[in-house]
């Protein structure tokens, strides 16, 4: 289940708690007991968790000097007051230059409009395109002369739209019942704990309920299972908000507000004329995802608070271009150009969609980033599918048939070297997914001084982006292509490790078949490799 591109959320159905992955009939993932909050940074050989070996990487870097690296998160926004981020935010020295991005102190919001409004609830791309093209093509079975390309695009849109609407309709019924069940049990728990309306409860609070009342026993059991599946850092309010947000997304597919973009942002997403649009509002109601992504990359290290980011000397440039729904190609293209023009060396993109009506704009932005020697790191997606066969967008296969060497596509892995090493939700692809990185029960910071533990390639991607930034901090003369090579060459192919194929119930495949490298990124080895390279950055 996606809430924002590539972010998994827990769902409850009539009191039977499970994580809803795309494959029907899939077993409920069992909670991993005593999973360290920093497991994604650990080393399998010494700590027993298949993280990125970050602590050995920092031992290797002792005594070496670093140079600040600007990393951009193109995401849902960011909490600029989060204690773990305030000291590592990028500050634009040109924020009052009148370049069309007035007062863009920490970045820019391409979904913003006048009076501080933001278009943060959107629909999927296939719904937008279906409604745009249906009056022309719905009753046509043969393309008109000269319209073959557009008709072929319509056929893809129609097929994807039908699939999405069927899924959304079924999920809407379930989510509605789930919300009712959770809301009801939430009421009983809060009443028993004597909590005020604005107070929350978490897993530890449930131990205070000792009554044998059947309703309370059942309610407590439901929430214990919810918290067990979601991990530390979750409370009842977060669970209900995530489920409510997902309900809103489903509703906007089924009854779409197709005018919100023009009404709020005021531009035409089908015209990319270079004219400025948006505003500087970065903390919006849906900024949780982007805040967590930024934290994994570079949350202030060793400050006794929150988490430690992967990189220790970065500045995070925040760009909002991802709503609760599908991003627009125009916003993605312009966000990449904004990041490049303002000095970003690494850009993290934890989003994706199934239809790309203006891929040429995004391709051009990718090429622009390549020309300026900027590395792009991309979440592979959470549909547990082979993206070699069913590509998601953006991707590095350009419309002209060429590819780029400045993009890393990242799948999500789990903490143990067992059959669940490949996250059950993760996309995969021997040709189009480069590497796997931790993406199961990963803990990061959240909005409003809170924390969150979540699943998703959305969280695997910024971990790799953090490794890329760490390399550039200490070896700033390396090109984007060299950084990518160091990261990919750091991987030890896990030949012979049989894992459950994402999307299947029990089919097992060799882990090496799921990506180009066949393994998991290793920060220490990447730095060792980088240290031996002769820099090619111009």
List keywords for this structure.
538 residues; alpha/beta; Rossmann fold; 2 domains; seven-stranded parallel beta sheet; two-stranded antiparallel ribbon; 13 helices; 35% helix; globular; disordered N terminus
Structure description:
This protein has helices spanning 44-47, 54-61, 125-137, 148-192, 214-230, 236-254, 260-265, 288-298, 329-341, 359-371, 457-474, 480-489, 523-531, and strands spanning 11-13, 16-18, 69-75, 107-109, 314-320, 346-349, 375-379, 407-413, 435-438, 442-445, 451-454, 498-500, 508-510. It has 538 residues and is of the alpha/beta class. The chain has a 7-stranded parallel sheet, sandwiched between helices. Strands 1-2 form a two-stranded antiparallel ribbon. A hairpin with a 5-residue loop joins strand 10 (442-445) and strand 11. The longest helix is centred in the N-terminal third of the chain and has 45 residues, at 148-192. It is globular and about 70 Å long. It starts with 10 loop residues before the first strand and ends in a 7-residue tail after the last helix.
Level-1 CATH class name of the largest domain: Alpha Beta
What is the H-and-E element order? Answer: EEHHEEHHHHHHEHEHEEEEEHHEEH
Low-confidence stretches: 1-29
Count of structural domains: 2
Q: What proportion strand?
A: 5-15%
The structure class reads alpha/beta
Give the overall pLDDT as a whole number: 91
Classify the helix fraction into a percent range.
25-40%
How many DSSP-defined strands? 13
